[in-house]
Amino acid sequence: MKAYIQRLFAHSKKWEVIYWWILRVVMIGALIDSIFFRKDVQQSLQTAANLILMFLWEIFQMFPKKTWLYHVPSYIQDFLAGGLFLASFGGAYLNFYYSIPAYDLILHTVGGLSGVLAGYEVIVAMQKRDQAHCSASIAVLAAFGFSFFAGTGWELFEFIFDQVAGGDAQHWSLALAQEAADQYGIALPNVIPALNDMRYALIDTMEDVVCNTVGAIIGWVILKICPYWHKGKRNVNLLFDAPAQAEKETVTK
Q1: Which residues 6+ apart lie within 8 Å of 232 measured at CB?
Q2: Is 73 left (phi over 0), alpha (psi -120 to 50) or beta?
Q3: d(CA 195, CA 200)
């Protein structure tokens, strides 16, 4: 345990740890309020699930060095923790999804972009684990696919959560959405108006998927222009040139 804790601090920056725990403490406060004061079961479950995901990098560091999870950099959790906080605490707990109509769409767009960067780091982590080369174009394409998978996976999580816990993460209930909209004196948050109850949930989910994809495309373009771990002196492939050359010479001899 001592070695594990030392590894956490060695692989992360002090300000990152402080930043993570500020968000976590606020989330813990929201969880306590949801359980004991609001007595909102769905909100409690959603907050708890997002709080656990805020420890994802620490969980990754439990794995041995031979796995790619171990090599994922700590700053990935900077984006992950911030995104989860804005979605769970800001969107659901503070009801920004309804009081700020464009809130959900902006989060999904930024999430799609961040997903590409996270996917790119996963590819780099796999290279470090395998000590293998990978061209920038392949890494960026795989990162785009990772983002698309993560965005779709999030929608699947929301669907399953709503079915199991009886929540409204997908905003499937037009009645609940209209009630919240009336409370804040705004129109329904969907950009495309729902013509009837049956299409409301479909439109909400598809808007999320479209925004995820738009964000992923933006991230793909950024990395195509500047693949920062496959460029110049920071080219991750250079880390493996010396070992590869030594192995080649050994085989030749």
Answers
A1: none
A2: beta
A3: 7
pTM here? 0.83
Residues 207-231 as b/e (b if ≥16 CB within 10 A, e otherwise) read bbbbbbbebbbebbebbeeebebbe
Q: What distance in Å separates the CA atoms of residue 30 and residue 19, rounded to the nearest whole number?
A: 17
Q: Of 116, 197, 111, 121, whose CA–CA distance to 155 is shortest?
A: 111
3-class secondary structure, 193:
coil
Nearest Cα to 90, choosing from 107, 115, 74, 78? Answer: 107
Tell me the per-residue pLDDT of 92-128, one tens digit each, with 9 for 90 and over. 899 888 888 789 899 999 999 999 999 999 999 999 9
Q: How far apart are CA 3 and CA 71, in angstroms?
A: 16
d(CA 10, CA 33): 34
